[in-house]
Design a protein that fits this description.
This protein is of the alpha+beta class. The protein has ten helices and 17 strands. The protein has helices spanning about 10-20, 35-45, 135-140, 165-185, 210-220, 280-285, 335-350, 380-390, 410-435, 440-445, and strands at about 25-30, 50-55, 60-65, 75-85, 95-105, 110-115, 120-125, 130, 145-150, 150-160, 200-205, 240-250, 255-260, 290, 320-325, 350-360, 400. The strands form two sheets. Strands 1-10-2-3-4-5-6-7-8-9 form a ten-stranded antiparallel beta sheet, with helices on both faces. It has a seven-stranded mixed beta sheet with strand order 14-12-13-11-15-16-17, with helices on both faces. Strand 7 (about 120-125) and strand 8 form a beta hairpin. The model has no long low-confidence stretch (mean pLDDT about 85).
Length: about 450
């Protein structure tokens, strides 16, 4: 008979994501195998990284151990992650990274938390008992007795784990930082009182990920993949219209105070893709939503009639140059020339600007341990340097993301990068709004 876990499918996926796209293989199950630590060690020792999961009446808690499961009558130091699902059917997880001394004897498996002196967790298989300090339960947001009887104990081998305690700590902490970024975006208000919504223009070569970035922002707020903007991999731009997308705080949520403006992709050919002569009109807010671009017919002032120039609220407040990180070093001279011409127009208008590098492979190495800045050791330094020289913008405004493509569930690391990038775009927009001359803010004069 096949031995199966008590974990729900979604809980398995959450745990696999927690440690960076790993996979779990069930090695020991107390309801099937012998209720003794001897059988535990026979089945689980020398298997690589393991995860011990204890199923309680209402909750599920467990411990991941990076090092090998200990052999009987041994003590060893381990890099561990303590986690809990507050409800046995829930997918909402609490997690804590710590170093531990792991002991196993004839009757007990014990974890002494070295980072939190005096705290411990003990599993007694023969009695189906779990011992935990109240401080541990408080950190995991569990409401249990110090000694609880459990229904089942399971031990899994964890395959595909990165043998790096720093990486594991980052994966455990990423949800906390995602939550912090999300709170900051929800609380954001444009600088000053001149505009209620910030407009961010996405511009870049065909296939660089402009529309995908909007979809990814929406997916991160909705906590599932969304596909509002059409994307593709054709040689010509999928986006033909100028689109102004608002962003909601999840399904049924309030509209947030920023909009992403998607443009036609740039093409190195002269009569294909977005006409760069259209950029000043877009920056000045003269181009309405769903305007149909024509590479052969640039926008003329007579195309749009205004009683007076568009107000500040309709203008672009930040430009994001979107580039595929894998193509930065192979951009043609014609494409670089087009990007530099756009950059000059942006500088002439005084608009805030950032560069957004998409298709980043290793999300975990992009941000430092505090999730504040790009790490100095990031492997994409040559691309970053080229972009910095091309646009003459500070490193802090060169952002990296991995867009969503078709994932069923969102990834906290991807979300953190997306939210961090969006936050920096809003800061660049605020810099522009704060630097407006007095006559701009008082009379809303044209650019």
């Amino acid at each position: 008979m096949e031995v199966t876990t008590r974990l729900t499918w979604i809980q398995e996926k959450v745990l696999e994501k927690l440690l960076g796209n790993t996979s779990l293989t069930l090695l020991y199950k107390s309801g099937v195998h012998e209720l003794c630590t001897l059988d535990m060690t026979k089945r689980c020792s020398h298997q690589g990284s393991t995860m011990t999961v204890v199923h309680l009446e209402q909750d599920v808690m467990g411990i991941f151990m990076l090092e090998h499961f200990p052999v009987l009558h041994s003590e060893k130091l381990g890099t561990c992650v303590l986690f809990a699902f507050k409800n046995s059917d829930s997918a909402e997880i609490s997690a804590l990274f710590f170093n531990a001394q792991v002991e196993i004897n004839a009757s007990q498996l014990k974890f002494l938390l070295l980072d939190h002196r005096g705290l411990s967790i003990t599993v007694t298989p023969s009695k189906h008992k779990l011992h935990m300090n109240s401080e541990v339960m408080q950190k995991l947001k569990l409401n249990l007795k110090s000694v609880s009887e459990y229904l089942e104990c399971e031990i899994f081998r964890v395959d595909g784990i990165k043998d790096d305690p720093g990486f594991i700590k980052k994966m455990v902490n990423v949800k906390q930082h995602r939550k912090r970024f999300l709170s900051a975006l929800r609380a954001y208000k444009p600088s000053g009182d001149e505009v209620s919504e910030v407009c961010i223009l996405l511009v870049g070569p065909v296939g660089s990920g402009k529309s995908s970035f909007f979809n990814s922002v929406k997916s991160a707020f909705y906590c599932h993949y969304t596909h509002q903007a059409a994307v593709g991999s054709d040689d010509t731009s999928i986006t033909k219209q100028y689109r102004i997308y608002s962003v909601k705080d999840g399904e049924g949520g309030e509209t947030l105070p920023f909009m992403l403006c998607d443009s036609m992709g740039l093409d190195e050919r002269d009569e294909a893709g977005l006409c760069i002569d259209d950029i000043p009109h877009i920056l000045k807010g003269c181009v309405p939503d769903r305007y149909q671009f024509d590479p052969c017919k640039p926008i003329k002032p007579r195309h749009f009639t205004y009683a007076k120039p568009p107000p500040l609220k309709d203008r672009i407040h930040c430009v994001a140059y979107v580039l595929n990180i894998n193509s930065v070093n192979t951009l043609s001279d014609k494409m670089v020339a087009k990007l530099k011409k756009i950059h000059k127009d942006v500088v002439d208008c005084g608009v805030g600007q950032v560069a957004l590098l998409t298709n980043v492979d290793n999300c975990d190495e992009v941000l430092d341990d505090c999730f504040l800045n790009m790490t100095e050791s990031v492997t994409s330094q040559s691309q970053v340097k080229k972009v910095q020289n091309m646009f003459n913008i500070p490193i802090a405004n060169i952002l990296m993301v991995s867009n969503y493509a078709s994932e069923r569930v969102t990834n906290p690391m991807k979300d953190a990068l997306i939210f961090a990038a969006l936050r920096q775009m809003l800061r660049a927009a605020d810099d522009y709004l704060e630097d407006l001359p007095l006559e701009e803010t008082s009379n809303l004069a044209p650019l």
